[in-house]
Each structure stands twice: as structure tokens, then as C-alpha cells.
Amino acid sequence: MATRALGAHRTGVPTWLIWIGFVVLCVGVGFLSSLGGRMELYQEIARPSWSPPAAVFGPVWTALYVMMGTATYLIWRRTDGERRCTALTVFAIQLALNAAWTPVFFGLETFFAALVVIVGVWASVLAMMIVYARRDRLAGAMIVPLFLWVSFATALNAGIWWLNR
């Protein structure tokens, strides 16, 4: 009982360590997926006039992954049973699609295929935002910036595909 009062899970693992685990998982997947291609490609291709500089992507994605990990931790902590299982399944699908986009865009350099993948990312982030919000309002709200960024990234990917077809 004393471990619960000190913020430990029933397994004895401190809850802050579980939170860090979710954050490291998200940031780690993002980092590993970035190893799957030529990042300098972004500077070499035709881009819409409203495209951000390459230096923006790293900090934005890092912040979004930290928020995603934190939101997922909240879902894990505040739900159980089938509600938790469903939410974590949606999270896993979204994270897998998210991880697939970078190697398709920067590795295969196939902008249309990347557009198809990012539409899947967009749909899965939308689903995650809805599922999380139904279980925990704060967790759902923490996914809103990710949804807005992926919406922007989808439009950017579409613009890049169009200009480089």
C-alpha cells in the first residue's frame, strides 16, 4: 500500500518511470524512423512556398512525441480493460503508420506513396484523438496539436507530390 502512496504501479514500478517509458517509446520510434532515408532530400525538391524550413521539423516532432507519450500514459493510467486495450491499439496503429511515413518519403523518395501513408496517419491520429478524448479529456486535448500538425504535413506532402510529379 505504501508504494501506491508514493506513486508506484501495482507492479512496484514508479509511475513516473512508466510515463518516461511511453515518452521514450514515442520519441524513439520517431528517431528510428528518421534513420530511414536522406533527410537532405527536403532541401533538394520543389516545395510549396509555404513550406517551413527543415530545421522546424525536429523540434516540432519531438514536442509532439512527448505530448503523445504523455497522453498515452494518461490513458494507460486512467483506464483499464477493453477501454484501455482499444485506446492502446489505436495508438499502436497510429505510431506504426507514423513511423512508416519517413522511410517512404525520404527513403523510397516516392511522394505519392508517402501521401497515401500520411492520409492513413491523419485518419489514425483523428481516431486516436477521438478515442482518447472519450476516455480522458486531457489526453484527447493533448493529441489536438498532433492532429493539426499532421493535417498541415498532409497538405505539404500533397503539395510536394504535385510539384515533383
Extract low-pLDDT stretches. Answer: 1-6
SS strand fraction: under 5%
Largest sheet: none
User: What is CATH's topology name?
Assistant: Ferritin
Radius of gyration: 17 Å
| Helical residue percent band | over 70%
* Euclidean distance between termini CA atoms: 62 Å
- Per CATH, which architecture? Up-down Bundle
Q: What gross morphology would you assign?
A: elongated
Q: Please provide the count of β strands.
A: 0
Class per helix and strand makeup: mainly alpha
Number of helices: 7
User: In CATH, what is the homologous superfamily?
Assistant: TspO/MBR protein
Q: How would you spell out the order of helices and strands?
A: HHHHHHH
Give a verbal description of the structure:
This protein is mainly α. It has a single domain, classed as Ferritin (Up-down Bundle), CATH 1.20.1260. 79% of the residues lie in helices and 0% in strands. It is built from 7 helices and no strands. Helix 6 runs antiparallel to helix 7. The chain starts with a helix and ends with a helix. The N terminus is likely disordered.
